[in-house]
Design goal:
The chain is mostly helical. Helices cover 87% and strands 0% of the residues. The longest helix has 34 residues, at 2-35. It starts with a helix and ends with a helix.
Amino acid sequence: GGVHRGVAGGLLAYLGMFAPGVILTFGMVPLWARLRHAKWFKSSLNGVNAAAIGFLGAACVILWVGAVVTAADAMVFLIAGTLAGVYDISASFVILAGGIFG
């Protein structure tokens, strides 16, 4: 938008990108207040969380295949996973440690 129509096009592109998410977020707040007390909804959120963990595991396998070439790469990968998964270190510190050791 900014290249084609200047500042006005850039602002329109910005609204086009972020307005749907903001509208959806504020539109869901009243519904969320009612749904979070429903037993069936809590159960479905457990399923969604399990699926998200599965996707993260698949992403780790894909990253392993594409990024780990040497034994040192494998060590950084495993140390980062251990820090996050076993010791509950926050992601920002795990990323920082990976940058230092990698």
